[in-house]
Protein: Nuclear transcription factor, x-box binding 1 (Nfx1)
Amino acid sequence: MAYRDRKLAAPKVANAWRLPTPPPQPGGQRKPGTSNTRTEDRMAGSKIPQPKTPSSTAAATTTTAMKKSAQEKFNQVQRQHVEKARQYATEYVSSEEEEDDADAGNTRLDGIGRNDGSSTQNILGSVLKNYNGAPSDMGKTQEYLQNLLESRNAVCLICIGTVKRADKIWSCQSCYTFFHLLCIQRWANDRISMKRMHHEEQEGYYNNRGEYIPKPVLSVHWDCPKCRQEYEPVDIPRHYECFCGKEQDPAQHPWLIPHSCGEPCGKQLKPACGHHCRLLCHPGPCPPCPQTISVSCRCAKSAAKTIRCSQGSWTCTVKCTRKLDCGIHECTERCHPTGECPPCRNRSKQPCLCGAQSKEVNCFESRWQCEKVCNRPYACSLHKCELRCHAGPCGECPLGKPRSCPCGRTQTRAACSERIGTCGDTCQKMLACGVHQCMERCHEGECGSCLVLVQKTCRCGQTSREIPCSKEATCETKCKKVRRCGRHPCNRKCCDGQCPDCDKVCGKTLSCGRHKCSSCCHQGACYPCNQKSTVKCRCGGTSTEVACGREKKAHAPKCTLPCRQPAKCHHQNPHACHAGECPPCVQPCGEQNDTTNCEHPCEAKCHDAVTVVTKDKHFKPVGPWDVPRETVEVKRLPHPVCEVKVPVMCLGGHETSEWPCYNSKPASCGRPCGRLLKCGLHRCPLQCHKVTHRASTTQDSRCEPCAAGCVVPRPAGCVHPCKRRCHQNPCEPCMVSIKDKCYCGLTQVFYTCNDLYPPVEGGTDELQGRRNAVLSCGQKCIKNLSCGHRCTSVCHPGACPNPELCTKKVKVTCPCNHRKAELPCNVAKESGGALECDDGCEAIRIQRQQEEQAKEDERRAQEELANQRELEEYERKFNRRKHRERKRHEVKEQESRNLLLYILPALIVLVGVILYFLLLQ
Structure:
């Protein structure tokens, strides 16, 4: 049997131990203290002894009285047991309520005070029932509603305290954050008072020209503590109003959002479209307008289409086809308003304004200027135009127009070849001070600084002396005023009265008692501590951060680790870490059922350690304030009786299980929900929960939104995962920086992963060209071609391109090495790497052959002479006569051997030459 939620299971066990129950009424309900014709049957099955029926009338009367008395006692005991069981079940359910306030206790009976998802969804459903907009438009408004229903998420940023449901609040009209009404009133009054005090401390001052500058006009306003939206003093909230402002001091209602009047909002939607918000009075901004309107597309070529008013316009698939400003090409963009065609992006070769250069530019840049100076002579033929590339005539010479002397007092017309000198009069130009004039003679260039001695007062106004007009008057007196903080003096030399803010650290101990204020020195109380403190759960395995100083008031974090407390029953009671006592064991008892003495084990919830609250029956209150004492005991309750199982489908429609008949209500099966979420990639990870349609396999309103990471595959080659949450294509470009060597291996190049592995948009050739450009260092390749010369291309991948077009000079000769020449490498390869021999080479070859033949004949003669001498010496020594035939045979054999010695090297050389030419080809 799958485990169930305690809140769902508790009401089902109100009669788990077979307490005496009254008979059913015709309406399906039971009322204690009533009986019907089957009372005798129940009495027969009860253990109360039954008297025997006598035959006489007196005995029958006595028997009837005894039955009536026994029945009254039975009904009285029955009512007591039912009340105790109901009280136990109620306490079992309400043991995890988050607050003990008396006002919140009434709302918890309806399920509104509980911090569970089903109650929140029910409330949101009742608030949004009149809204007909798209679900995607409700995101921000629904978030504010969710935060308001869960009271722990609403925190006043002024006092850092929880905003409860019964508190009076004020909501900012810009950021929609709500604060305690008293807190925002105190905040606004303090801000206005500080501005007025600062304005009173300011004084007028004299500037460097001696002019008196009065203090600025007082501008009093206060701002929101979060978004700093400025408000006027009349905007200080004086009354507690609902979110829409229709009702003051809205009353609490168990079925309405806290601080809401329950009436339609009625605010003008933004942007202003003439419609009003149809939601009930709600916090946060109004959602986009959900009304439907019929409008044509942006280009007005398609028929009207019904869209949401908040969408404003829609785009069709028709192309524009209007002529662009260039007058050549047509607009290829899709639906857009008339007259808003983009500039023509086609390229064409256009001359510059002067016509000196031409280049390929975009059509909308057809009128472009080169860097060439015009340099065409004017009509005077003495001067030339100094303007940069321009169209049309250069005009007349600017030096031929009326000119004046440097001081501008004398103006004359002269030829452009004449130079206008000074007039000799006083310059009298206004100097930089704006008061005095230049007293020098007419001169070229700028006038000097003003040296007239004037009486000037320093910035602080304490000293006065004569100094040149161009200099600023200052003194060495230090300002003794106290700065705005009220603690430190100004100490600025020659202060003009506008003392700067104190730049020292405040250093006061904050309200948390641990840290000191790190802001600049200021007046009034310091802001709350912005540090965080850690609050741990009972086992210490889970922690959360809260505002410093609120550790005691903060609730312990929800821990998912197993509880370390030993179980009070005979089971291993696995549950998550918690605060306070361990929850009751929810496992089946499993022991032999000794109540009914059946052979089945007890399948009810474990009842070894059950908390029972009893009251003193003999208690006599002294007054209405006196309440009876309650005794809380942990007891072992008897086993309940066995019951027949019936099939019940779980909440999510995953499986059908057999449950006891009295508890035959759908419950969670403990499996993952598994419904396909709206992202289309993941499934709901929650355990089996309540859904609207059990047969559906798509996301339900109660399913948990997708919070998984991105699963969209990255471009081929990219190994960096996307850090966004689950989303549809495309992912953001991968901007991870990568360092690698260029193709030639000499330089390190830096690029982003998206540069090398972008999403595939074009063809394979375009993508490969982009990668080659990224990994190329732009320098000359260091590889050698197959011919042995260095590659002339820029750093590139793979083999060097066009090795057959090498133009490096090489030396080539003819086979006889008589002719020599320098040719390009590709030409030398085409010619076989050698020159052809001419007539001179042939004559030299014949001459060399004759010389070699002569040398060979001489060598042979010498060898024959030597052999003859050796033979004579041999015959002389041994004095033997040899047969004539044998000698003739040996001489012939020797001659054949000598011939092979000459022919064999020549054959080897010939074969080598033939192979060399074959390899070159």
In short: The two ends are 89 Å apart (CA to CA).
